[in-house]
Write a structure and sequence with these properties.
- The complex is a heterodimer of chains A (about 475) and B (about 375).
- Chain A is built from 20 helices and no strands.
- By secondary structure, chain A is an all-alpha fold.
- Chain B has a five-stranded parallel β-sheet, sandwiched between helices.
- The termini of chain B are far apart.
- Chains A and B meet through helix 9 and helix 20 of A and helix 1 and helix 10 of B.
Amino acid sequence: MLFCSQQYLLFFLLVFGIYWALPWRRGRVYLLLAASFYFYASWNHWLAAIIAISTTVDYWVARGMQSAGDPRRRKLLLSVTVVGNLALLCYFKYANFFLESLEQALRAAGSTASLPLLSVILPIGISFYTFEAINYAVDVYRRHVPAERSLANFMLFITFFPHLVAGPIVRARDFLPQIQRAKHWDWARMQLGVSFFLMGLFKKLAIADRMALFADPVFANPEQYRTSAVWLAVLAYALQIYCDFSGYTDMALGSAHMLGYKLAKNFNMPYLAANISDFWRRWHISLSSWLRDYLFIPLGGSRGTAWQTNRNLLITMTLGGLWHGASWTFVAWGILHGLLLIGHRGFKAFCRARPRLDALLANPLTTVPRVALTFVTVSLAWVFFRATTFAGAAAMFQQMFVPHRGLGLPLHKSSLLVLACLMLVCHVLVDRGVWKKLAPRLPAPAMGFGYALVLILSMVLAPDAGKAFIYFQF
Amino acid sequence: MAKIPGTRSSFAQRGRQALAWGLVWVLALHLGLSISLETWLPVARDPEYGRKLALLRRRIAEDPQRPLVLLLGSSRSGLGVRPAAFEARRGPLGGTPLVFNFAMTGAGPVHELMFLRRLLDQGIHPRMVLIEVHPLFLHQESGYAEENWLNINRLQRCDLELLARYHSNYPAVRHHWRWSRLAPWWAHRFTLLALFEPRWVQQESRPDTWTRLDQDGWLPFHREQVTLDEYGRARELAKKEYARALQSFHVTSVPDRAIRELLDLCRRHEIATGLFVMPEGSDFRSWYPDSAREKVDAYLAALCRQYQCPLVDATFWIEDGLFSDGHHLLPAGANHFSQRFGREVLQPMLARAGLPTSPAADVASKRRTKTSR
């Protein structure tokens, strides 16, 4: 059930209507829980059972941790829940990847052994809810949050349908108190929710799905296309992945707001980042902060020597890459970002020792080229993310950097360029605070017309229906 | 009481008003488009039908007295029948029938019946209808059913009653149709976008193909010639699409009922009818087992006997080099076929139906009418 589908619209309207009609707070919690399981089961009933079992186990283990006084027992219980969740993730997501990689390694060593592949389907959203379960367990262990007493509340925290399949990765300390809080109908919040939802819908339907028309055929057969077309396809993919994922997040945030919940912000105009470090503070914020808090810092963070810090960064980003998908190209993407972050750290230290250079880089005039350089770097890294094999990525780079003749883009480039400019203008307006000043001054009919226009344009510019969100596969 | 700007209640009031206005605008825009599609913008709902209807109306308006001969059929006829080639000998007096190609992509008996019903509802009353019988559309089972070509977004309300009788999953059609009516901006997005910026629409969804229609509804194939390679690829596609159905060929109930209802409808409205089969290349013909060809021939012979309408089987009329894929004619093929069709089929049929066949015959017929008066 995609957020931009007819089924979701009907489902959400039904849940929304009953939710606000129910006078009891607990009734609303149970309604949302039932709706979330229905939402998840619409993909696969059995996978809904798996999530139910794993959350129940996590709930009881956390309760055990809370009541246990013995630190060793608490550590043991933490290990049980972390290992259990990671084992679940590894089995469903990485088992075949590891088996295939092992087989390839054995073949490279001269063996003719053939390892069996497991017949498993990837539970949608497993990467997101296992991380949520882990951060809850770790926070309970660290006594940052108390173990939730109500199983229904805990299950809702994990399975709340707006964030269930592709995040944002929510933290227990942010979400659980919201369940306890009484919800009151608030028109301003409804407006906020509708605004978020429409913005996400536009990003997904009008931009991401349209950009896929440019990127998909080129990434499938790069050698057939001329150099300029391949560069434009990379630009299209950079826009596609941002609008697809942030569009999903906006719709999730919007749906949650309309039900009285606030989810964490996941994007902050990442393509306006002036360096790679800034990019990771703006891109998939809930994941990067999770990786920082539950991986980078426990590894030692930046407390040790430069070498140790760089090692921790590389490990964190490599695992972050692997988290995205069971493929070596994702690992390469993670390593590349790790190296870029290390390079940026080194460059920052280099500049700090040269105040004039530092001042020059801090000058607003140099911001535009720095933003452009960061964007190009990130876009080139996306090639590893999008290509399914290294050979595919290599073919893309070859077409990009060695001039080639060939086919033009599969669709006229005007829509790509117009939408890219539109995005840039919107980013600048928001970044400069123009929208924040303008929006409250707009009369209600004009604001209403804006909503209607965004909805209609989302419909008209959508190239096709039912294209799944990219991050659903993670 | 006035709300103080910046307070919680003023935000709430603003939010309520903005959302209410948004709803009003959405409803108004959808309603506006729905009305437009029904009145002055039918071409956005169904570009092929809309353009052909507009052309037909224009042709009728040029000389409303001319008897109308309407040709119904599939893309084979749409690309292969060029009415202008029939009328090459038309003299300055006018009065010969207006022959209009109303064939549509993917149209078999059910679509042909649907289009004729629509035209009659709109007050367009042909004197004669020439109906293409596409042999493959006589066998409509699962993957080969004409309903697979049905674009539900393009249906009119009056079509639903017909589809209730012919569609295998009518409730789904009705459901989809209602949604398309509720959200016309979504249902007709490709045609609407193409009206403003055709380059933003994918080639396969672009409706501007129909701008190439000539004034009599003929759609020339987009190329004059195809290379052997292109022909081979297109023929393989056609083979993939049709050859398997021919192996288990039999006339199924849906097309049989539809074609009979179409002939009954014509009879009730005193419209003369004729059936014809479009040419096929030797490759295409080779995919028919003997039994399939015999079943088609026997069925059509029995149908024509029952309805006393002429049948012309033009399967063997055109040589292979004039097809783009073994069954769709290139422009040269269309000219060649249309000239022979006009000479050997149309004129005898018109004469049989008592319609003028040429300017001379038309003048004679007018004289006869005056004398009898």
